[in-house]
Amino acid sequence: MTEALLFSLVLVGTSVLTVLAVLMLLTAFGRQGRPRRGAPVGGGDPAFLFDGRRLIDANARGRAILQALTDSDSDGLSALLAFLGVDFPGIEGRLSALDEGQGLSMPSQKPGSSLELTAERRDGSLRVTLVDTLSDEAAVTLDRLSYRAMTDELTLMRGLIDAAPLMLWQENPSGQVTWANRAYMQRLADDSTLLSWPLPALFPAADSTATQRVSLVDDTNADAAVWFDINRVATDAGHLVYALPADEAHQAERTKRDFVQTLTKTFATLPIGLAVFDRTRRLQVFNPALTDLTGLETEFLLSRPGIEGFLNRMRDKHVLPEPRDYRSWARRLLDIETAAPMGEFEETWALPSGQTFRVSTNPHPDGALAFLIEDITSETHMNRNVRAQMDTSQSVLNQIDAAIAVFAPNGQLVLTNTAFSQLWTLEGEDSINAVTLPEALENWQEVGSDPQLWARVGALSRPVQGEKPRVTGIMTLTDGEVLTVDARRTSTGALMIAFSQDAKKKTAPEQDSRAGSRAQILRASA
Q: Is the residue at 255 inside a domain?
């Protein structure tokens, strides 16, 4: 019995030692037979194995992530880095810096995320693993239809975003571009920019969500700038950014700005004072001539006074007339839309200083009111001087005994004296302008005895080089009276005809009877 027991113990011990030896051999073999380059990775957390930028292998969860990110595994690292850039800024640079045998561990920088990334470079391959620190290998179970609906929606959203005709991208809190749609990528390709993650920024980053208008300028053609309105939407991961084409809006604003500048320069050189009030009757636009004419301070005009305050200040400056009822007069200006026909107003203001202003207003359909002030002092003085000279000339002509008529170059009778009105009387007309030179010559030829005289006078109105600018002759009327005719062409091209008679050979009764017979000798054509 003792020998049998000892034999059994020896047998059991030998078996145990054999098992231990096998385990040690397996352990040693496992160390020497580590998976080499290209060996598949196991299950668990999402894991990826890369050779350069080419995906060698991934576990089931890793392949599921890649299938959701890209339609091809040809460059899986780029797609993965674009996905990881949101949680792990600068991941591409960190991975590129890994040397053989080195590894790294990075926690997610995204608020509320529990992801952690580990990476190791060994035997020329790069192994990347994503670990959810809050997960205890728990899996979310979805039925096949729910999963298919999510996949279809993801495909639809990706297609819509890539087909969008505007650039869309995402920026992390540091302003780096961590995701972009196809339009953004194509713009980068057009600019011959090397693509790497995070992507190069086409537009400067900004913390403000207000719309910004920026341009992209071609280095080969600085004038060919393309304008965009940049809209940013703040998110937990940074900003979602939209670049809306704004070439037409920019061109329209530029055209408007140039037009306003042109108007401003034009208004600045106008000698007419201009004041434009908006629909609330507040001053919006004025030019320098307004301050020169009215003496109103620039500071006061820049304060945008109302039209009533504007008129009151002009009254204080004594550049308004002083009507008896100033309030009613001012109220008529304030109620110009209803107080004047078609809403227009025009007056001539004679100021105590001796100046004369022509003031007009013109309301616009949008409710604005343009107020124009023109200094017509010199024009008024000139008109007065011309009128005084004409009155003096007329009074001098009236003192001459000879009957004088002056015809303008166009043949219209423009001037006569008192002796002419007594000698020749218009038929049925109150104005001398109703008679023309051909009509007068025809009438005088009928009542005179020398038709050739009036032919020569008519030719005098059509000057010929070398011809004397004067014609004289005798006109014998049907009643026997004799008149001396003297026709001259003035330096201005007018024709002056003078009729003289010898008063010594005629008695007063004879003159009265002849005047009566000639009362209707000049006839104007109908």
A: no
